[in-house]
Amino acid sequence: MHLNMERKKSKTREYIESLIIAALIAFFVRSFFVQAFKIPSSSMEPTLLIGDHLLVNRLSYVMKVPFTDIIILNLGEPKRGDVIVFRYPLDKSKDFIKRVIAKGGDIVEIKDKRVYINGKQIEDKWAHFSDNNILPGHISPKDNLGPIIVPEGAYFVMGDNRDRSLDSRFWGFVKKEHLVGRALILYFSWNNKPEGIFDYVRWRRIGMLIK
């Protein structure tokens, strides 16, 4: 009887220890290496759709102390065109995903929906427009903005769905310490508006690299 009780305690202890170790590994991986995110809005369409689930490389640009903005190591710089996840500057409890358009020292200007960096129109192959109307800059910065200078250590970001994105045009720049990482790959995609019973999962999107 005594031996049976000891064996039960030993198995329970092993189970608890395994759970603790698994939790610590998951915490370590999530804090420093890879983190999963879900797309809740249409701001990055058609690149990213509502219901897409993606993995983000947290070591793309910085390594930070977990749950803080204290940078331990600088690992790289976002490039124009990178799709990045960052902490929303106006509410750091929220994570946003946008595309890098310009970095520190660049002069950004938007004229009638066209983006100019340092006086030259960029090849804006990512931009998608759903509204043909053009608003003057004194009404909204959506279609006409600047010129403005991006501060050093900061980035100007925009959603690919330019007419449906809350981005740097409206709230300013992303600081380096607010970076979470670069979006890598779609591991799942849930369609909340299926046409049929077999369309709840967007099978073709699973495994797609995010570019």
Structural topology:
Layout: H1 2-32, E1 34-38, E2 52-57, E3 62-64, E4 71-74, E5 83-87, E6 95-103, E7 107-111, E8 114-117, E9 120-121, E10 145-149, E11 154-158, H2 168-171, E12 174-175, E13 179-189
Antiparallel strand pairs: 1-2, 2-13, 3-4, 5-6, 5-13, 6-11, 7-8, 7-10, 8-9, 11-12
Quick rundown:
This protein has 211 residues and is an alpha+beta fold.
Q: Identify the strand order in the major beta sheet.
A: 1-2-13-5-6-11-12
Approximate helicity band: 10-25%
Rg to the nearest angstrom?
22 Å
Biggest sheet, open or closed, and with what strands and sense? Answer: 7 strands, antiparallel
Low-pLDDT residue spans: 22-29
CATH superfamily of the largest domain: Umud Fragment, subunit A
- Tell me the distance between the termini: 63 Å
According to CATH, what is the topology of the largest domain?
Umud Fragment, subunit A
Strand content of the residues, in percent? 25-35%
Structural class: alpha+beta
Report the top-level CATH class of the largest domain.
Mainly Beta
* Average pLDDT: 86
Number of domains in the coordinates?
Answer: 2
Shape: globular
Work out the number of β strands.
Answer: 13
How would you describe the overall organization of this protein?
This protein is α+β, with helices and mostly antiparallel strands. The chain has 2 domains: 32 residues; 171 residues, Umud Fragment, subunit A (Ribbon), CATH 2.10.109.10. Helix content is 17%, strand content 31%. The strands form 3 sheets. The protein has a 7-stranded antiparallel beta sheet with strand order 1-2-13-5-6-11-12. A 4-stranded antiparallel beta sheet has the order 9-8-7-10, with no helix packed on it. A two-stranded antiparallel ribbon has the order 3-4. A hairpin with a 2-residue loop joins strand 7 and strand 8. About 4% of the residues have low confidence.
